[in-house]
Amino acid sequence: KEDAAKLRKSYGAKVSGEDIPLPIGSFQDLVTRFQLDHKLLENLIQQEFTEPTPIQCEAIPAAMYNRDIIGCAPTGSGKTLAFLIPMVQSLIMENKKLKGKRQNVRCLIISPTKELAYQIFSVLSHLVSGLTELKIGYLNKSVAGKLRNKVISSSKFDIIVSTPLRLIDLVDHEALNLSCVQQLVLDEADKMFDSNFVEQTDRILTICTNPKLRRSVFSATITSNVEEIAQSVMTYPERIIIGHKEA
Ligand code: ADP
Ligand code: MG
């Protein structure tokens, strides 16, 4: 507990909410506390991600405890892995229980632009390298076309990364079933809730009908307006703000 307070002070974190889990001090902590898959750890080390960044220290345990998250940390501070690591780990754990029974899409990551969505997909594909039981998809034109023409089924994917419009289009054409989605991440949340995107974002929030849906939003800046909307669709979110004091 005291260590946690010290750690939080050192990276200028303000964390609020109910029952806030202790941060991790290293990726090794994830092995001890959450049985982090050894292949996943190996993939991190291989890419020279040896120590978690502050947003990762806070957001990963929160996600492992299945919390809704409002995460705010500067650009370049590792928000992508902060939401991808617990997402992948929880799927690996669930797969062990399901023993090969295929599910529909379980995780959804939405980003406002194609470039950013593809960037997330690329980080994700490195992270799941060698974890062959996990199927990931980026909804580019070609994949979207195949889904629309029923050449492939959405149950082929465990995790989908997309921009809002492409996703909504597929749902409208009954080419994508999102009723089983357990985790929804809105990246660049300041944009996702601005006037250009808010309608699409609202739509996505209503499409994901699983009552157990865990929602999280990440951004470099979170205005009070965004915060208000996010809070209104979340359940006891943990709010993590990392200051700009990061080294
Ligand atoms: P953000 O989304 O917060 O702007 P990114 O997730 O794009 O930041 O990460 C920024 C950079 O930091 C990327 O090049 C990524 O590879 C790197 N990075 C992320 N996590 C770590 C880590 N734990 N250790 C070292 N580098 C990291
Ligand atoms: Mg980012």
From TrEMBL:
<protein>
    <recommendedName>
        <fullName>RNA helicase</fullName>
    </recommendedName>
</protein>
<feature type="domain" description="DEAD-box RNA helicase Q">
    <location>
        <begin position="29"/>
        <end position="57"/>
    </location>
</feature>
<feature type="domain" description="Helicase ATP-binding">
    <location>
        <begin position="60"/>
        <end position="240"/>
    </location>
</feature>
<feature type="short sequence motif" description="Q motif">
    <location>
        <begin position="29"/>
        <end position="57"/>
    </location>
</feature>
<comment type="similarity">
    <text>Belongs to the DEAD box helicase family. DDX52/ROK1 subfamily.</text>
</comment>
